[in-house]
Design a protein that fits this description.
- It is a single chain.
- By secondary structure, this protein is an alpha+beta fold.
- The chain has two domains: about 5-90, Elongation Factor Tu (Ef-tu), domain 3; about 95-234, Threonyl-trna Synthetase, Chain A, domain 2 (Threonyl-tRNA Synthetase, Chain A, domain 2, 2-Layer Sandwich).
- It is built from three helices and 15 strands.
- The termini are far apart.
Length: about 230
């Protein structure tokens, strides 16, 4: 298992680490700043710097267990040995854009009252799908509310609760198709002060003002009660 530094500090861009294992899936380190694909957010890319030669990382995925992260090397990259010392460094510009998008989706979730049926985050756009009727969504009104929430400059912080508290507060879970992981003793929440509070293991900016300008680009009908809202960043 690895120490996952991004859970408490999404702004950590690199860290010293030691290679634990290497297999056909990739490289596991004893500690990492790389976020693995999950919750609709893509895994980080970057590089493992070493005195023996750098290893470009094309993606990051979850391994076996809640704290296992696999760094997937780019095609043709050399394979390190267990025990090798490296510096794990993410592509910060890409990560920060994903953080801005992910935080903006939490704001969107606070605006639309329906359950969340799906979502994804990319480098150029992001989306959430909601279990709501078409007539309940007003693109102009959603845009105005997003603008106000970004401008408010609300702090964004992770915090933790135990499984028992989550069981007592089922209203915290907005996703309908995917339930947050339980059975590990505690669960990470994202808390946007006075705006949104729900389970989330992703990376986010520290203040809503850092998101910058969000644009509601499209609202699509994806089924009888399934509406997709797509956003971009200016």
């Amino acid at each position: 298992m690895s120490t996952l530094l991004f859970r408490e500090d999404a702004y950590a861009r690199d860290c010293a680490a030691t290679v634990i294992t290497v297999d056909e899936r990739g490289i596991q380190l004893d500690r990492t700043v790389f976020y693995p694909t999950g919750g609709g957010q893509p895994g980080d890319t970057g590089v493992l710097r070493s005195a023996l030669g750098d290893i470009p990382i094309a993606g990051t995925i979850k391994g076996d267990g809640p704290d296992a992260v696999i760094h997937v090397p780019a095609a043709g990259a050399r394979s390190p040995a267990a025990g090798e010392a490296v510096t794990a460094a993410i592509d910060w510009d890409r990560r920060h854009r994903l953080m801005r998008f992910h935080t903006a989706l939490h704001l969107l979730c606070s605006i639309v009252p329906g359950g969340v049926t799906g979502g994804s985050i990319g480098e150029d756009k992001a989306r959430l799908d909601f279990d709501v009727a078409t007539e309940s969504l007003d693109k102009v009104a959603i845009q105005a509310r997003l603008d106000a929430l970004v401008a408010a400059g609300s702090p964004v912080r992770p915090r933790w609760i135990d499984d028992e508290e989550l069981a007592r507060r089922p209203e915290l879970v907005r996703t309908m198709s995917v339930k947050p992981p339980s059975g590990h003793g505690r669960l990470r929440l994202l808390d946007i002060a006075g705006v949104d509070l729900q389970p989330c293991g992703g990376t986010h900016v520290g203040n809503t003002a850092e998101i910058g300008q969000v644009v509601v680009t499209k609202i699509e009908n994806k089924g009888r009660q399934n509406r997709r809202i797509i956003i971009g960043l200016a």
